[in-house]
């Protein structure tokens, strides 16, 4: 997404963006957990698998999404007061 000033975006758009980010973040978190579990299982069953690096490398995306959700939530809270 573009790096916009959230103060210029209307409330309806912020709610849509927050809902979309929550859904996508939940899907990403679920997929990362499944991928991590599968790679751990493969590593135990056989030997070390380089696929173990993939879920670890994708964690910053998950963290950034959570931070963006928190930023949008703070903006919505400040507008409701």
Number of helices: 2
Distance between the termini: 27 Å
Radius of gyration: 17 Å
Give average pLDDT, whole number.
90
Keywords:
2 helices, mainly alpha, 81 residues
Describe this structure in words.
This protein has 81 residues and is an all-alpha fold. The chain has one domain. The chain is elongated, with a radius of gyration of 17 Å. The two termini are 27 Å apart. The mean pLDDT is 90.
SSE inventory with pairings:
Blueprint: H1 11-45, H2 53-80
Helix pairs in contact: 1-2
Structure described in brief:
This protein has one domain. It is built from 2 helices and no strands.
